[in-house]
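## retry 2 of 3
previous attempt timed out at serialization; input unchanged, resubmitting
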Amino acid sequence: MISKRRLSKSENKETLMEDASKARKQPLSKKTKESYASNEVEENDTIFVRLLKTSGLILKTGDNQNQLAVDQIVFQKKLFQSLRKHPSYPKVIEEFVDGLESYIEDHDSFRNCLLSCERLHDDEASMGASYSKSLIKLLLGIDILQPAIIKTLFEKLPEFLFKSVSSDGINMPRLIFSQLKWLDRIVDGKDLTAKIMQLISIAPVYLQHDFVTSLPEILGDAQHADVGKELSDLLMENTPLTVPILDVLSSLQLDTRFLAKVRQLVMDKLSSVMLDDLPVIIKFILHSITATNALEVISELREKLDIQHFILPSWFQASQIKLKSKGRASSSGYQEDNSPNCVMLLFDILKSTLRYEKVISEAWIKAIENIAPESEHQSFDLAMIFIIYSTNTQAKKNIERVLKNKIRSGCIQEQLLQSTFYIHFMVLKDICPSILLLAQSLFHSQDQNIILFGSLLYKYSFNFFDTYCQQEAVGALVTHVCSGNETEVDTALDVLLALTGLNPSAMRLNAVFVKGILDYLDNLSPQQIRKLFYILSMLAFSKHHEASTHIQDDMHLVVRKQLSSTIFKYKLIGIIGAVTMAGIMATDSRSTLTQRRVDLSNEQCKQVTSLLQLVHSCSEQSPRASALYYDEFANLIQEGKMTPETLEWIGPTIFNDFQEAFVVDFCVVPEGDFPFPVKALYGLEEYDTRDGIVINLLPLLFSQEFAEEGGQMTSQEPGQKLVSPLCLAPNFRLLRLCVARQHNGNLEEIDGLLDCPVFLTDLEPGEKLESMSLKERSFMCSLIFLTLNWFREVVNAFCRQTSPEMKGKVLSRLKDIVELQEILEKYLAVTPDYVPPLANFDLETLDVIPHSSSAASAKNKKRGKIGGRKRKADGSKAPSPDTLSKEDNSECDAMPTGRSQLDKELIGKKVKTSVSLQNYSAFFREMDIEVFSVLQCGLVTKFILDTEMHTEATEVVQLGPPELLFLLEDLSHKLDNMLTPSFTKRNPFLKNKGNRNIGFSHLHQRSAPEIVHYVVQLLTPMCNHLENIHNYFQCSDAEDHSEVGGPGVKAQEYHIMASCYQRLLQIFHGLFAWSGFFHIGNHNLLYSALEILASRLKQIEHEQSLEELVSQSFNYLQNFHPSIPSFQCGLYLIRLLMVLLEKSTAPAPKKEKIASLARQCLCRVWSHGEKEKSSIFNEHLHDMLCIYLEHTDNVLKAIEEIAGIGVPELINSPKDASSSTFPTLTRHTFVIFFRVMMAELEKTVKGLQAGTAADSQQIHEEKLLYWNMAVRDFSILINLMKVFDSHPVLHVCLKYGRLFVEAFLKQCMPLLDFSFRKHREDVLSLLETFQLDTRLLHHLCGHSKIHQDMRLTKHVPLLKKTLELLVCRVKAMLVLNNCREAFWLGNLKNRDLQGEEIISQNSQESTADESEGGTSSQMTKSKATEDGEENEASDEEKEQYSDESDNSD
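## retry succeeded, writing output
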């Protein structure tokens, strides 16, 4: 049958082809007939005409419609009966059809038969349709005529296929084909389907499209499968028909498997389709998706769909965006004309589908989430994230989660976001509000990378979208600025600043929104105020600032108002704003010098100088305001924003003011009733009594204190200038920067200030410390703080001088700083509530209080005096995370400033308090980043000259360990602040901000890459120091200096070197852990840093790859491990190696080495001040153990070694002893080991795939073996709670015990389902061991209830629920393996940790039942030898069920 049908089809197809070729060669000619009148009726005696007339239809000639005198249904019924009752039936049908064929040979008659009939007496038709059918359609509605009529039509059709449309505009092929639509019944559907497909194969393309799209309207449901198969075959042969075929297939009722095949066929052709066809193709693919295959289809679709190929050429031209040529900068004219509309249509289809099809939306999110980090994410992925976020409100949280994870992992970076906006900006423009909403949500994150991504969304939305979107973006950023969250405010201001630089004209249109922030200045920090005024100044004083005069007026108004305030908080705003404005005005005047008239530039210069004079006059009566003005002005000079004219004006003024205020002749004896004898100390040169200068510090400080007490501040003469020692360091900074700028860095004019002495008194307290009054101790503390800040600024000024003389003096000043810090610690230890004079003046409030750890500082409401103003000093305030990082706290607790605690321990002084100067960091002047060039100094020869400038003697100066530690600590804090993201807590609105950045103002004027570049230049000297310290400890170990029992000086030096070691490792770790290395623009910095480390092992002769450099650097650093002096140093070294491991492409050997080094640290006896009871050591031990278990190749073996070897050694050792294998494992640290082992065990088994029945037998055996080891480790750990029953251990058992059981349910039970029959003994052993463990968990639940420990009982319900699930799951496994009869239930007794029965009312009543259950258990055990796995499992299930049933009491 099939072969005959195909043969017939082939023959018919050939006949149709012959007819069509004849039609092409020779057009059909009308049959010549006589012309009838327009209203004449067809008179013919054929049976065809007679039967039609008797049935009620009159054939008309010419252009007139055939007339139907009766209802259409009546006509069909009469004609059917006439044919059926005709004497020559069924031959009459053939005669009737022959008559029809003869009649329609005339073109006009055929046309009339295809057009609708004219109905007569419509008002009498009671059952008629609302429209009139054609004669052909009426005949097709009669079953006995339909096959013959269809055959006639298909024989007639080829005559018109290649004929042009007639003058009346009627397309005959379409008109003929339309007769087949919407028939009530198809007599022979298969034959009709075959004829249609044959016709489609020979028809012109434009008719093929129409014929294909008409198929759903012609064929019935029974023919859908056959048509679908034919269309799929045609789809493979005829690409131009892809769109109509897919459109039809979407409308047919087809089998899902067949649709899947077609979908795969279409998916394979995606790369070669035309853009015009793409929307329909995507629509078909999406509509053919089911819930089971959604993820698979979407994943394949996103891989093969390359929209960028279509829209790059045309949309770039349309948007006038210029990009670099990518090799396919041109496209066909067809694509260029239509691609934007087609792409918009495509995305409209995607939006509609995602909005109403939740399955597809979730699958698309999952597909993007499942993209491997090593795979390349496409701009289309990011565009789809934005589209789903805008169309599906229920998926917003999920989208945010996926996007944040991608940003954290580095998969989505700025380059991808930029290309997404470039390529898809037409689509993204319509969803701009949703993009801004997403950016707002990302701004609320605490991850710096996520916040940065949110800022980029604002930036690109502003640059790519229209004015409305720009206004919305600026409004949202202004809202962030006023939010009160410090991180949000800083990032939003940075974005506004970047937008102002990139597109000032567009920002100027939105300046009114930015100007509104001036009403919220109270809520901004000084650094934020500085940014805001910088933005407004750029908008107001730009080249075309004639239209921005209103901004200038408002800014001048705000500045003058704030400067005139008597409240320092507002005066600070005025000073910062005015100086920032002056800097922008001066920069603009310099840039316009060659473009505008010189007199205009001079006018602007006058405005700058007058504004600075206003600030100077408004701040000179307030020492703190003056100091702030000096610092702000100095920053402008350092940034190069001051014109030469301004410097010429300010230079002599600052020089004279400084000299008059703070410098006196050496021979001048200070006059006054001072409480201490005044001496000129810390001079670096021998001065004659008639020569030299001195810094007049102590008299100025005394006069200030005296003035405050005597109330003379208010009675000061109006013209007299106030001189305060607070201004000494800021004024000098301004002076030296001004001199350096004018003389290209040469400071010869002021080099006398480097070695000149200072008027002080004997600072060494000695025995008089305890006898001094509180006022005297406070005075001495203030004097030392001011001296330290003076020396710090001196070192900042002269550290870049190249002469050996200057270098030697700078090193001497560093030694003076270290010496003074030691003295200061002694004073602060007995003055706990003392508040020092400020050194950083850009602070919002006066409440900057040092965090003291002394017990005596618990008093509240103590007052300190600074600059004539009193402020509260809450000494009991604990260090906050904003001020001190965890590492800083660890330093303070373990080794404050590297020496102070050692001095007190070794020398034996009984001081009740411990002081760390790190808690007072806000009261020290900031060290410039250039100071660390001193690290490059080796031995410096300093020449001592006589009075005639001849060399009298030489002195060799070098950087000693104390000075090295001082510099390394400061550099470490700077890198921690600059390169480590700050996760500060959200501050409430209208509240003060955190003070994490106090003391880093100058540092923040530089970018992170600049800091990294500078530190990379210091790597060579730091490696030298690291190697020297390494050699020192190797020599110390050789001399058996491992115990701190030697002389005090030796031990002190040992610990200073250990602190230097630790700080160097911290600096290296902070540098290489910088996230900015992932940015492509910073790769050269990473290469440079790695080359320096790699070159320490061997000379680099040729350019090496990143992996080679990482490997050599890794080998270089791991060589330092044997000389590590402390556990903390070992942790930092391993963390540093882990950072390098992240950058390696072959991490396996390095990972094993890290695990080996971590194990060595755990197995080493640490005797250098490591306190196992301290929280710092516990945290480090926790981190080290996690590193070991995460990097070892066999976690289960490592856990078994610790729990099976180390813990028993601990149990059998004396009370204060430790494990011999793991000396770090003691009774105090056991809970840390236990918690980490339980967590890593749960994490390991959770990551193990469950496997499937299709896996090989070997895989099943390996996984069973793995789970046996995991359960054995779990059993060892759980049983340890019988020995160590402290609350932390029990808490760990409850928490991670439940998680382990959950992992067992999800990962192991599916494995047991299909491994039960083949490996029943292994399964029995596994379940038996696990049964005992869950029984212990049941006992732990009872223990928690009996002791009513709320901290433990909160975990009991979840654990019970999990154990119940385990019972049901094992029962399901038995049923699956036809062992249902082996499952039965019993009861267990409630017991405590030691196995003792817990007596309760219910348990007493059910004693008999429990004993029966126990007997049944034994019976099951004995029966297990016969029935194997079923009964063993039933015993296990009985016990598990009883765990839960008894606990339900």
